[in-house]
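Narrative of accomplishments. A recurring question from our advisory board has been how the design workflow behaves on a single, concrete structure rather than in aggregate. To address it, we present the structure tokens for one chain from the evaluation set, followed by the sequence designed for it. No filtering or post-editing was applied between the two.
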């Protein structure tokens, strides 16, 4: 009877790409050739799947067949797990500027999610990495995971009796780790009072466009009316390096810089200036930041804006700070 192999690979990266032609067909416990049901077709899963298929070709007595189960035309969901547990460990590892990471391989539990036994794990304290993007970190984790998976199969570590190898043994050890919760809208809510320019640029690179609330002002027959609007920084920010403007923190201004058209600039809590790219203001289409602000009444923009092209010391301030 052929054995069906059931275990899961949990995130968190990475040596050289596995060369399966060098595998030694040495196992400590005998088993029938494996019939593998591989669940996953996302970018992280492809590398382990390719390694398994190469092993199947090289060692048919170890892996008899591989079948792949995946969802077509639908985004995959929960993320990859490891030293940072939860739906978004890749993102949180980068957001927290953690320089070490690793991978865990565990069996599947018949009734509990993530309740299986750990049969392989990157040794504490993990592997140093230099990844700056989620894609780079995911690729590193996938290569390490593929290497670990093939080693487990080669050494028959999944055959009972299974030896538990997880290095986090009790609640006290586990308490030093922070759960990597799912990334939600509030994680993208830009905190100008606390986030430095580096924090903002890193966060927009890792989790996508950030956002704030601000007030638009309109003249009506009954007087001025203010309305809170969400502004999504779709085009992100870039760091202004030529001018030291000393702008108010989190209160955007419109300035003419470098002799070009007007720019929407925001001062950060560490004294830097960020220039906004395209923005999407609630109820409007994505547009150049200045055009979007002029159209939606976020700042008292005069009809003649030529003076703002002449000096970075002339500027127009938004009606209200960003919230």
């Amino acid at each position: 009877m052929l054995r069906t192999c059931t275990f899961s690979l949990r995130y968190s990266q990475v040596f050289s790409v596995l060369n399966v032609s060098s595998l030694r067909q040495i196992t400590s416990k005998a088993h029938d050739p494996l019939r593998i049901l591989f669940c996953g077709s996302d970018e992280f899963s492809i590398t382990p799947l390719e390694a398994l298929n190469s092993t199947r070709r090289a060692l048919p007595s170890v892996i008899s067949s591989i079948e792949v189960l995946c969802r077509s035309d639908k985004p995959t969901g929960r993320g990859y797990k490891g030293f940072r547990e939860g739906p978004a460990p890749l993102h949180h590892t980068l957001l927290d500027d953690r320089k070490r990471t690793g991978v865990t391989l565990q069996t599947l539990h018949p009734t509990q999610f993530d309740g299986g036994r750990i049969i392989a794990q990157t040794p504490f304290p993990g592997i140093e990495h230099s990844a700056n993007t989620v894609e780079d970190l995911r690729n590193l984790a996938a290569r390490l995971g593929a290497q670990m998976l093939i080693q487990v199969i080669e050494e028959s570590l999944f055959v009972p009796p299974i030896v538990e190898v997880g290095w986090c043994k009790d609640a006290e050890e586990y308490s030093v780790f922070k759960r990597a919760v799912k990334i939600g809208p509030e994680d993208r809510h830009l905190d100008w009072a606390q986030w430095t320019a580096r924090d903002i640029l890193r966060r927009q690179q890792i989790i996508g466009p950030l956002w704030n609330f601000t007030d638009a002002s309109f003249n009506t027959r009954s007087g001025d009316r203010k309305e809170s609007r969400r502004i999504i920084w779709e085009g992100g920010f870039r760091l202004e390096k030529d001018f030291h403007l000393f702008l108010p923190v989190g209160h955007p201004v419109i300035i003419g810089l470098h002799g070009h058209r007007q720019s929407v600039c925001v001062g950060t809590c560490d004294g830097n200036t960020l220039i906004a790219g395209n923005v999407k203001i609630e109820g409007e289409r994505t547009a150049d930041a200045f055009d979007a602000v002029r159209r939606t009444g976020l700042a008292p923009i005069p009809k003649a804006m030529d003076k703002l092209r002449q000096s970075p010391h002339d500027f127009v301030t938004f009606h209200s700070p960003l919230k």
